[in-house]
Specification:
Number of domains: 1
Strand content: 25-35%
Shape: globular
CATH topology: Thiol Ester Dehydrase, Chain A
Structural class: alpha+beta
Order of helices and strands: HEHHEEEEEEHHHEEEE
Distance between the termini: 45 Å
Number of helices: 6
CATH superfamily: Hotdog Thioesterase
Radius of gyration: 18 Å
């Protein structure tokens, strides 16, 4: 990775419009509406009384697969998502215009052979310039250790309690989940091309980390928000293991004070934790 070139690069402001089609497609990609006869679930995928999932803020005004730019010299085949978090100061409209403003806030070099963490920030605005929220993506560049550190690392996410969870929700992903989700803007071939997946060390294409994140988001809204998406304002988690399309994701959660929730997700079939140190803030 060429750190100097990355830090010199000025990410363009991205203005984008989205409609009910994009909102519905995102919800389908993260497995919303397991029961189309349930009117509450249908509200995420049907234009009548449509509501957007808050985690869609992560893909709106998406900058594209910028890490593939050859001038950055990133070993992009080995890039994976490490952490994701967002905070919304207002409910995300089901359709509208948004502006994404991007910057790199920190680079943590773990050393040669150990990779690098890169913190990529987005400020999300309505089309009129009013603030919607902020998004922080932490990327793990597995093939780029030894480049040097810069800036400030993101705050550490909190370890989930050692006690038994308050509850759990299981969501079966589709074998087509990755192919559907990528239509929301992340076209990294790691999630579609078996040859690229093998080159990256995986037996087959893996699910996007942000898709797993969205599954957890809609599961918590279903379980804890009474299907009212605007009640969930903050969500963050660490990606720990890959998920393969078709696997069952189990979200375990711990209720805390003042609307705070801690959670983690595991794959039922393999018994592995895939999303850890999760935190959510719900309006109560």
């Amino acid at each position: 990775m060429n750190l100097a070139r990355i830090l010199d690069y000025k990410f363009p402001e991205i203005r984008a419009r989205y409609g009910i089609r994009e909102t519905i497609l995102y919800a389908l990609g993260v497995g919303a509406c397991s029961d189309p006869l349930n009117e509450d679930e249908l509200s995420f995928v049907y234009e009548a009384n449509l509501q957007s999932l808050p985690s869609m803020c992560c893909v709106l005004a998406h900058p594209g697969f910028w890490a593939k730019n050859p001038e950055f010299e990133i070993d992009w085949v080995k890039l994976v998502h490490a952490e994701q978090r967002f905070t919304l100061v207002a409910p995300l409209p089901a359709q509208g215009e948004v502006i994404g403003q991007y910057k790199i806030s920190g680079v943590v070099d773990k050393g040669h052979g150990k990779g690098t963490l890169l913190h990529f920030d987005k400020v999300l605005l309505n089309g009129d310039g009013t603030l919607l929220g902020s998004v922080v993506s932490t990327l793990f560049l597995r093939g780029d250790g030894g480049c040097g550190s810069w800036g400030e690392p993101a705050l550490e996410l909190t370890v989930v309690p050692a006690t038994a969870p308050t509850g759990r929700i299981d969501v079966e992903t589709s074998t087509l989940s990755a192919l559907t989700y990528r239509l929301s803007g992340d076209y990294n071939p790691l999630h579609a091309d078996p040859a690229v997946a093998r080159d990256a060390g995986f037996p087959r294409p893996i699910l996007h980390g942000l898709c797993t994140f969205g599954v957890a988001c809609q599961a918590l809204i279903r379980e804890l928000c009474g299907f009212d998406a605007k009640r969930l304002r903050t969500l963050g988690a660490r990606f720990t293991k890959p998920v393969y399309p078709g696997e069952t994701l189990r979200t375990e959660y711990w209720l805390q004070d003042r609307g705070e929730v801690q959670f983690r997700c595991s794959v039922v079939e393999r018994g592995e934790v895939v999303l850890d140190r999760g935190v959510a803030l719900i309006d109560i």
